[in-house]
């Protein structure tokens, strides 16, 4: 989730907006608000504990946690980028010397790193209370980190169509819903057909599989696929973000 653009004064010196400092700015905003970070980390953890303590079926527990990850990254970033545009921060980034793709991708990757820290307690809770071991935990961490990159990029791209911070909420749902469905989170993955192929390419399907394995169930995919597929999706997402970064920064 990208930090609030209003956290730094409008009079921020241009040097502080140099590409190498944009990611540092994002991290500084988060560190300046430890209470907010604790709350954002505590709520997903509470949900995870309730699911595990309530012995929810691993398929449904994994589904709810995967949807939570999708919403944390995509909604937070979409709203924050929209607000940053309204505050004029993106306009200042657009005229900052340096590579625009590097500016925006650095910012979004820093936001994904913050989200990973926020959701790390959920993964640890699954390790301590679920039926998985160190291998399943490692797979989950990689799938979680890569999927958060994808969701943060999606949230950023959604702002190309949304006119306001309020409108992006609906747009994010319209983008995420088919991706989650194609990943088999709501109905399972068919044994054959085009939906099987689509699910195999969908990072949410592999994160769901990794959560199931961590919680003690039988993952849909092999551990290697649950690592490689989300990483490949993250690389594609970052490349798309870099290609569209001028349009995102220059959009009125």
Automatic annotation (TrEMBL):
Q: Which residues cross the membrane?
A: 59-82, 103-131, 137-161, 168-186, 221-244
Its membrane topology, per UniProt? Multi-pass membrane protein
What keywords would UniProt list here?
Membrane, Transmembrane, Transmembrane helix
Q: Where in the cell is it found?
A: Membrane
Q: Which GO terms describe its molecular function?
A: ABC-type transporter activity
Q: Specify the ABC-2 type transporter transmembrane domain's residue ranges.
A: 58-241
Pfam families, from UniProt?
Answer: ABC2_membrane_3 (PF12698)
**One of the record's GO cellular component terms:** membrane
Family matches, as InterPro entries: ABC2_TM
Identify this protein by name. Answer: ABC transporter permease
């Amino acid at each position: 989730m990208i930090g609030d653009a209003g956290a730094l004064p409008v009079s921020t010196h241009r040097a502080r907006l140099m590409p190498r400092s944009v990611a540092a700015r994002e991290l500084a905003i988060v560190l300046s608000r430890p209470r907010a970070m604790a709350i954002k980390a505590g709520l997903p953890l509470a949900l995870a504990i309730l699911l595990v303590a309530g012995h929810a079926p691993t398929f449904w527990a994994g589904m709810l946690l995967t949807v939570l990850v999708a919403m944390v990254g995509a909604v937070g970033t979409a709203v924050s980028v929209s607000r940053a545009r309204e505050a004029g921060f993106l306009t200042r980034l657009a005229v900052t010397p340096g590579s625009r793709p590097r500016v925006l991708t650095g910012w979004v990757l820093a936001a994904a790193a913050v989200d990973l820290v926020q959701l790390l307690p959920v993964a640890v809770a699954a390790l301590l209370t679920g039926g998985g071991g160190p291998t399943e935990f490692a797979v989950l961490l990689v799938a979680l980190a890569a999927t958060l990159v994808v969701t943060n990029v999606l949230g950023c791209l959604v702002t190309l169509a949304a006119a306001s911070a309020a409108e992006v909420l609906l747009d994010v749902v319209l983008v995420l819903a088919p991706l989650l469905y194609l990943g088999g989170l709501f109905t399972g993955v068919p044994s054959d057909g085009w939906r099987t192929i689509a699910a195999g390419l969908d990072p949410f399907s592999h994160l769901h599989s990794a959560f199931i394995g961590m919680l003690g169930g039988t993952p849909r995919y092999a551990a290697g696929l649950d690592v490689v597929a989300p990483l490949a999706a993250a690389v594609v997402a970052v490349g798309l973000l870099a290609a569209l970064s001028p349009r995102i920064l220059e959009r009125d």
